[in-house]
Batch of 3 targets.
Target 1
Amino acid sequence: MNTIKVFALALILAGTLGLVYGGFSYTKDTTVVKLGAIELTAKEKETVNIPLWAGIAAIFAGSLLLVAGRRK
């Protein structure tokens, strides 16, 4: 497989996952209070939403790359 096909398949896979899951979340540590040697931290859960149009656009772009790769 050449790199264009691999990139096209990765775009299609990422777009499909974006449509199925709709986003992802992660946890980050933040410093709440820092007083000398004492430091108080808290874990915050952040959510990133993937727009519907972005998933569809990734699938469409990946499909175009696959078709363009075959026409060589």
Note: The chain has one domain: 3-70.
Target 2
Amino acid sequence: MEERVISQAVISRLPRYFRYLGELKDQGVERISSQDLSKLMKVTASQIRQDFNNFGGFGQQGYGYNVEYLYAEIAKILGLNQSHHLVLIGCGNLGQALVNYLNFERRGFVFCGLFDQNPDLWGMKIRDLEVKPMEQLEEFVRGNNIDIAVLTIPKDSAVKVAEVLVSAGIKAIWNFAHVDLNVPASIPVENVHLTDSVLKLSYKLKSMNDKDA
């Protein structure tokens, strides 16, 4: 049977579903209809049903969705039923903030190694992990079953570091460097361009101000 291709738009909504369902579960809500979920998420009920139908549906007509079950199923779809080992490259303020964000570990994203090219940072500990020189990165990735590399480094360094990671067998890259990485298609890359995000916000703010003028 040919595997169904899931659109990027659907994939981008899955974390939101997971987050809202988690909040409902914590509130003790046992079931919810697509209509009620649509009001919370500002997504049409039809869109919600279409999205879930990509993965088998999950709901029952006249009943809606069992919140705990749906939460668990989306967790599986997102790969959260297993842990992921991460390395951080770039231990500046942003990198340290990511390592210290405990919610990642609660979701199964565990930082195992920290690396930086600045000798002044070598030996510094962040949550009991010691910052190591970049020269040790490739061997560490090869020997510790690392799934995801997190890049919080300048764009001039990111391309070369990505080449080292690919050579070491990295499985995925979470890229905060403001550069598009040229890696094999088999290695997924999620780009987080913070400047792009704030520029979008600036545009929205300007548009609102223009309407009020």
Note: The radius of gyration is 20 Å.
Target 3
Amino acid sequence: MNQLGTKRLETERLILRKLEVSDIEPLYYNYGSDPQTASYVMWDKHKNIDETREYVESCINAYNDNKYLWVVELKELKEPIGMIELLHIHSKYQTAEVAYAYGSKWWRNGYATEALKRVLHYGFCEVGLAVIEARHFPSNPASGKVMEKAGMKYEGRLRKRMINPTTKEREDLLVYSMLKEEEHEF
């Protein structure tokens, strides 16, 4: 497995790149403070721009440790609309999890699928991962559709695994995955 960290990636409509200090304000307004986005992720909505600043600064510092975290920038807007990350990377088993979130203003345009396909390709073909998985709350079926459109397959349900930060209720997680040998199909 190659420890490459976050490299700049592109798709037809998107640039996936490392976070920069200049991203703090657009990330706060386009994504971090969006209550709709926060209702489907495992973190709380940012209460103020200082929370976003702390988050961005901690992420920038983590790039030194081979962190795989991209801000997703819409080429035509030249601003971040969300983020995608490879996390829980196990070098011994060549596995990782992928997580993503986008501001609700950009939902239903195919951006999440486009970015996910690119990160899956990078993970398999450049980093050398064998399996990449993803999870979502059942209350967010659109995220499962993104995973399916990117070629991931449904594996199962983890019962009452997380507490939804918005509802404060326990929720199941639905798990999808892709194997390296399946990536070429998409």
Note: The first helix runs from residue 24 to 32.
